[in-house]
Amino acid sequence: MKTSTMRCASFFLLATTAVLNPVAAFGMKHAKATTTTTLQSISNPNSDMNHRNSHYRRQQHVTPPSSFRRMTRPVRTSSSTQLSIANINQFRGGADIVSNSVATFFQGAKQWNASPTSLFNTSFVAVAMLTAVFKILQRISDYNSKNNESTKSTEVTTPGRIKELQIKFLSVFWLLRCADWLQGPYFYEVYASKVFNGVPASIALISRLFLTGFASTAVFGPLVGRAVDLYGRKSGTIAFSLIYAVGALSTKSPLLLVLFLGRVFSGIGTSLLFSAPESWLVAEAQKDGEDPDGKYLGETFGLAYAGDSIVAILAGQLAGIAASQKGPTGPFELSTVFLAAGGLLAAFLWGENKATEDGSASSGKPSIKDAIQVVKNDPKIMLVGGVQSLFEAAMYIFVLQWPPAISKAVTKAFGESSVTPYGAVFSCFMACCLFGSTLFGQLAKIGVSTEAFTLGMLSVGTLAMSLAAFTVSSAVSMSLPLLVASFFAFEACVGIYFPCIGTLRSKYVPDSHRSVIMNLFGIPLNVLVVGVFLSISKLGLSGALKISAGALATATLFMLKLVMSIRAPNGENQAAVDSIP
């Protein structure tokens, strides 16, 4: 692993790059939001999303606020000695440079919130610096701990096999995630550029293509999970590379049937991406018993999703470059390069592992029927799966709604002529995710219970989403700072969630049916998201965010019940556990 100095240097370089050239088009998870809010004009003819998307497509470069171009310590003044920019020039030793720097600093300090772009660029730098400082303090603490004579004898180092496993997994995982993020920014543009019988693709058609991907994931997910457990997680990861590449290349076709088939393949690929690599990692980590309490597994998940936030920002940059060179299909073509690289690395670096046999299975092989029975027999699996379905449904509903919510708040704060910098907002979201994943990694390292940490995260997420729903519903007093703060807090929770849920699944979901069970809980997730999408004209922004807050509140109750059940393993306080809905 790299030293703290290298990590911090890399992070500041990334932060600087993102501020100087914010992501013009962002990754799959959040990019679906802009696409979907555009599609929502089908059910809401008065929607102004076409106007917002046109502004978004015109954004190519955003200049950072002047306060970040050059910052110098301000000159002190007193009643007896007044130092102005003019008389500073009387001093020797670069007085002109100092005076210009001071003037630039004060001018920039007054303009940090002069426009939406400067506001979100400033916010990005603030969150990025907060994360970097937190990481530096963490490294200093680790260094001091290692040099403390009283702890040297009890210091536990990461086993060599675990480090090797982390390198093998992360190198493949980040390549595949980059391929996924690359495809998101130009989802709408690539299909809007198609012409059928002399008529450009309508928004209604694009919406059907969008929903086809969700439906494919819901329908084929359990079958895909069973195949992964039966034939191997390495094979499932390689299959993802191939299937997702087919979906990406289908965007070059002018045939409508090929485009729909491509969306079906993409939906199947999504099921593979979110089950096969994780199942492979967990099985490998538990193989030799070197990580019985899951400490190093939690650390690995923290690293994976912290890096994923950085990968998302870089993928947005690469997608913009590819689109400028090859048009809207460029990012999809570039995605296949990363898919090929990830698939080849998995083929050469990973060993195969399959689901362990379950003696209670009717056929000795993993099946959907047996997986359902396993879930029914263990309430803890049901609780973990419920948290997964509800949180991710809330997350995707948020993904569908944050662009119009932010746009309306920006318009109210800065006027009708203001343009929402979606790329800069996305960069802020990813910085918040990175902070959340970094926080998880530190707490996992010091031994904080994942269950308790997840409960706290869900509580904060519920409060944040409730605040956002309240802010949006209060049209007269809609506050941009409150909305941004609530969204940033929720994105930090997203950064915490993924390593948390990965650790919980590794602990409670049996290896014999892991991939099947993970995909089974994807069914209610996708049904809820599609239902909200189809009903958005009736629900509105506030209604959708309220559903998201309700899903998070229910997930919090599920997690509370799980925490109480593991604290009363022998039936103690069981009445209190059963009383939780």
TrEMBL record:
A single Gene Ontology MF term assigned here is:
molybdate ion transmembrane transporter activity
Q: What are the TM regions of this chain, as residue ranges?
A: 119-137, 203-224, 230-249, 381-402, 422-440, 452-476, 482-504, 516-537, 543-564
- Signal peptide (UniProt feature, chain positions): 1-25
The annotated region (Disordered) lies at: 40-75
Q: How does it sit in the membrane?
A: Multi-pass membrane protein
**What CDD domains does the record tag this protein with?**
MFS_MFSD5_like
Keyword presence, Transmembrane helix: yes
Q: Which InterPro entries match?
A: MOT2/MFSD5
Where in the cell does this protein reside? Cell membrane
Keywords assigned by UniProt?
Answer: Cell membrane, Membrane, Signal, Sugar transport, Transmembrane, Transmembrane helix, Transport
- One GO CC term, this protein: plasma membrane
* Chief subcellular location: membrane
Q: What is the designated name of this protein?
A: Sugar transporter
- What is the source species? Nitzschia inconspicua
